[in-house]
Amino acid sequence: MFKNNKNKLLLVSAILLILTSCNIYFENSTSNLTSPTISESISSVSFTSKPSLPSNGVSEENSAITNPPPTYINQNYVLKFEDEFTGDSLNKDVWNIEYGTGSQYGLSGWGNDELEYYQEENVSVENGLLKITAKRENKNGKNYTSGRIQTKHNVFYTYGYFEACILLPTQRAMWPAFWLLPDNEDIYGGWASSGEIDIMEANGKGMDKYTIGNAIHYGGNWPNNQCTSKSSKIPEQGTIDQFHMYGLEWTSEYLAYYIDGEVVYKITNDIYYSDKAKDNPSAPFDVDFYILFNLAVGGNYVGYVQPEDSFSSADMLVDYVRVYQLKE
Ligand SMILES: [Ca+2]
């Protein structure tokens, strides 16, 4: 999501969405239709530290049965975290909402020359989905507003299988992403020596609707950072404006990117490194990372294009995000 950049240092619709969401569409491969009772009880739990499953009467064993690992990953994985986006609001014990232009972090345009102003109003939970909306709207000198949420210091893991079921917009200049950043940059230092894992990002200029991007950023502090990436086709000639399951299997040995249960890209640890720990083959991807979803407008990744004159709004929809880890 961060690029090599100068600055960085209704009912019918509900039914249609349900019919096309991942749990139904991929019923065979996920083999689960989440029990609303279990799901709601999990997502209402307050996490004050690194969560596994809640101590709310739902045992890890029972929850693992309710939400077994997908058939295409190691069956020794168990569910550690999920947000199915039930209810009518974002669970703020899990999610932090980000605001503004990034200038509060010294990152005007969020380090990527992004054109939007992030605000809470553009993030909603309805019909079992997280919705992040980019709009043409003037706010604090910006011509667009959108949303960005993350789980820093709330939900973070080292290794596991991360998956989200996402539908993406296809309008020009849209840059949606599902990605991970280090929860503690004190270990390996500032971007990108502590790493960044872009599980999925879509490019509202440089890619067609059949393709998403997979990437990691690593190496040294900017400008001595490295990026290794691939443009990956969605299997079965799928398009990004349908729900697809974007996954990352992350171990000490490799990062494997999945779409709809198929490995589309694998990066082994001989590729990445951190300048701060050159003798550690797994660095910087051997520490806790947290989860982000955002829908940027414009910026370097999309070649600085602007939305179409006819653009009014666009939605990124997320059915769920789940994290599995190996049984201890
Ligand atoms: Ca959902």
What do you see in this structure?
With 328 residues, the chain is mainly beta. It has a single domain (11-326), classed as Jelly Rolls (Sandwich). The protein has helices at 11-20, 22-25, 27-30, 36-43, 60-66; strands spanning 77-83, 96-97, 116-118, 123-126, 129-139, 142-146, 148-150, 156-157, 160-167, 174-182, 196-201, 211-219, 225-233, 244-250, 254-259, 262-268, 289-297, 313-326. Strands 1, 3, 4, 5, 6, 9, 14, 15, 16 and 18 form a ten-stranded mixed beta sheet that branches. Strands 2, 7, 8, 10, 11, 12, 13 and 17 form an eight-stranded antiparallel beta sheet that branches. A hairpin with a 2-residue loop joins strand 15 (254-259) and strand 16. The two termini are 32 Å apart. Bound molecules: calcium ion (CA). Calcium ion (CA) binds next to strand 18.
| Estimated helix fraction | 10-25%
Ions, cofactors, ligands: which are bound?
calcium ion
What is the straight-line distance between the termini? 32 Å
Q: Could you give a short account of the major beta sheet? A: 10 strands, mixed
Number of domains: 1
List the helices and strands and how they pair.
Layout: H1 11-20, H2 22-25, H3 27-30, H4 36-43, H5 60-66, E1 77-83, E2 96-97, E3 116-118, E4 123-126, E5 129-139, E6 142-146, E7 148-150, E8 156-157, E9 160-167, E10 174-182, E11 196-201, E12 211-219, E13 225-233, E14 244-250, E15 254-259, E16 262-268, E17 289-297, E18 313-326
Parallel strand pairs: 3-6
Antiparallel strand pairs: 1-18, 2-7, 4-5, 5-6, 5-18, 7-17, 8-17, 9-14, 9-18, 10-11, 10-17, 11-12, 12-13, 14-15, 15-16
The chain binds calcium ion (CA).
The site of calcium ion has 6 residues, from strand 18.
